[in-house]
Specification:
Strand content: 5-15%
Number of domains: 4
Distance between the termini: 52 Å
Oligomer: single chain
Helix content: 40-55%
Number of strands: 6
Largest sheet: 6 strands, mixed
CATH superfamily of the largest domain: von Willebrand factor, type A domain
């Protein structure tokens, strides 16, 4: 049995590995907080850790998941005494379980679950989830645990109609009372599903090890999540986070523009300032440049190897559209086509990607990445998109399947633009391996590793 110090050290290390920023000083603060709470009160211990180690509300789900693994609520079966020795399923004449809808034992459990959901008994729901995993979470002959078996047997979402009937008690359907009740029961059902998932993770951790379970189960916080691993719900959250970064990116590009050109000489102000030095114009005065929102051209690799990163690229395009006077987006595989029209404001990104895949002319011959030919097509068809007012942003992994690179063409485009940057979704350690031409392209367009929101924010800060 590991000591409390060992468990604390491993827990803090797991938080860091999951992407939560926990310093040495904060780890010591947690130790001091443990001295003033009852260590046998698990929720008080959770609160002490959370108060000292969690900085952002968005990090709380990862924290709670890891806390439940390192400080589990039960060991072993953990089932209540009411479940001990009680059969979970009815067997037919051949010894096989009866389907859940026809099984009186399963229907009895469903009635118990409905009663707990109706009363909002969280403690009872927690114990019921533990019993349910013990009964339905492991099929005969299997050595692991699954949430799907529990949720398939009990089907908690199908209890909604009965719960609403019990609460509304003859009231008119479709009104405010039903909407409030439906939302409340939806939250309680989701809570039960989360409790089942947590109990399954606990049982798996006991069988295979806490560290391994944590690595497989806990996703990093949103700002550390690789764009290539983001799901649909996470893409929606990324879209909200991208907007403030887009405003900062536009502001930085305008600032670089102003710093690079002070404007025309203001002769009258210069002469007036020279009176203080006997008519010698020691300091010149310049007319301020009229500020304007810069233009942006985005050139995005849409091949299968970076398809998830392309989703993020288009999220960024959505956000940047409001910050620049003009945004034009282009996608390529081994040919290039303009895709701006597919990503109008309000369009779902996934739907736009589907339409782009079906309609855009991105394939020349093979349908495999060919940066050289794609860059040539861009210059031939859309050279007018890049001007002295344009910021050029290239997004891709710089892997061209050992084909041509068209470096002179890219250099002409970069020289013609006001600014040019390249964001690469691959880890820097993988650059120049295999068919990667990252360094060769990076000599022309400054290349930055950009796999998550944290690295995107760092790239924006470097523009200062």
């Amino acid at each position: 049995m590991a000591s409390l110090v060992d468990r604390h050290t491993a827990f803090v290390a797991a938080l860091r590995e999951a992407g939560l920023p926990v310093s040495v000083a904060e780890g010591l603060d947690a130790v001091r907080a443990m001295r003033v709470v009852d260590l046998l009160d698990r929720e008080a211990l959770r609160a002490a850790y959370a108060a000292t180690l969690v900085k952002r509300p968005a990090h709380r789900p990862q924290f709670d998941m890891l806390f439940d693994l390192w400080f589990p609520a039960a060991l072993g079966d953990g089932a209540a005494h009411t479940a001990a020795g009680r059969p979970a399923r009815t067997l037919d004449g051949e010894g096989r379980p009866v389907p859940p809808p026809l099984d009186p034992l399963v229907q009895e459990r469903r009635r118990e679950l409905a009663d707990l959901l109706l009363r909002g008994d969280d403690a009872g729901l927690r114990q019921f989830a533990r019993n349910a995993v013990a009964e339905y979470g492991q099929t005969p002959g299997q050595e692991s645990w699954f949430s799907s078996g529990v949720l398939r047997a009990l089907s908690p979402e199908t209890l909604m109609a009965g719960l609403l009937n019990a609460v509304l008690n003859g009231q008119e359907r479709g009104g405010m009372a039903e909407r409030v009740a439906r939302r409340s029961f939806t939250d309680r059902i989701a809570r039960f599903q989360d409790l089942v998932a947590a109990e399954v993770r606990r049982r798996i951790a006991e069988d295979t090890g806490v560290e391994r379970t944590a690595r497989l189960s806990v996703r990093p916080p949103l700002e550390k999540l690789d764009f290539n691993r983001a799901g649909r719900a996470e893409l929606a959250a990324l879209r909200r986070e991208v907007y403030p970064l887009a405003r900062r990116l536009a502001a930085r590009l305008v600032r670089k523009q102003r710093a690079g050109d002070r404007g025309r000489l203001d002769f009258r102000r210069t002469v007036r300032a020279s009176l203080a030095s006997g008519g010698v114009p020691l300091t010149t005065r310049h007319r301020p440049r009229r500020p304007h929102r810069p233009e942006l051209v985005i050139l995005c690799d849409a091949s299968d190897s970076v398809s998830a990163f392309a989703h993020f690229t288009l999220l960024l395009t959505f956000a940047l559209r409001e910050q620049f006077s003009k945004v034009r987006a282009f996608a390529f595989i081994d040919a290039t086509d303009e895709i701006t029209k597919y990503f109008a404001p309000g369009v779902d990104v996934a739907d736009a990607m589907t339409r782009m895949a079906a309609e855009a002319d991105l394939v020349w011959i093979t349908g495999r990445s060919n940066y050289g030919h794609a860059i040539k097509v861009f210059e031939d068809r859309y050279a007018d998109a890049v001007t002295s007012r344009t910021a050029l942003l290239v997004l891709g992994d710089a892997r061209s399947n050992y084909g041509e690179l068209s470096l002179p063409v890219l250099r002409r485009l970069a020289d013609r633009s006001r600014h040019a940057y390249w964001l690469n979704p691959e880890p820097r350690a993988q650059w120049d391996t295999g068919d990667s031409a990252a360094s060769r392209y990076g000599e022309i367009v400054p290349m930055h590793e950009c796999r998550n929101l944290t690295q995107l924010a760092a790239f924006i800060e470097e523009l200062a």
